[in-house]
User: What shape does this take?
Amino acid sequence: MGFVSDDDVAQSLHQKRQFHGRGAEHSRVGFSTVTWILVGLAVSVGATSALQIAMLGAIARERGGFEATWISMLASLAGMAGVLFVTALGGREPRLHQPFDRGMVFGLIAGIMLAALILASRGIPWYLALTGFLPVPYLLAASYIGPRIGLGVFLGSIIAGQLIGGIVLDHMGAFGADQRRVDLVRLIGAVVLVLGVILIRGRRT
Assistant: This one.
């Protein structure tokens, strides 16, 4: 057996510390990158909420607020039932009590809700009937992204996306709404919203 000097032991320990230090650094970089990707997705989901509000307003001007809400809820039920049906086809049965523990049940619900949506939305532009599908990404993001980036960051990102999306839609006068041009004050407000999300996230060590 060869003799191991104190210098050899010290050098080995130093190399191990360097290795673990680089691993921790890469882990922090990876975590930060994934976090900001999730924040970006949350902002995008927030923008879809602004789109939904604009589309609901267009339906309400033609049919009324209660009717617009009903059309939106039909689409939401059809969309969420469709998601559960597709995941069941992929091998993941819903983890619910009977009779909602089978994917075919949600396939049937999705079909009924879709038929009801088609009937209820007759006479309005077809794309407005899709408004109720937009909350589905929000609900999925809340269950997946929220726990991973924190409730404060998630809600801040959603609100930032909603308000920035609203500013853009106002500027366009989307779906027949009154047009409100973007000006310097609104641009500053959008920048402040993004900075708010960064501040809410805080420092990560």
Notes: The chain has one domain: 42-201. Residues 42-201 form one domain. Confidence is low (pLDDT under 50) at residues 19-31. The longest helix spans residues 6-63.
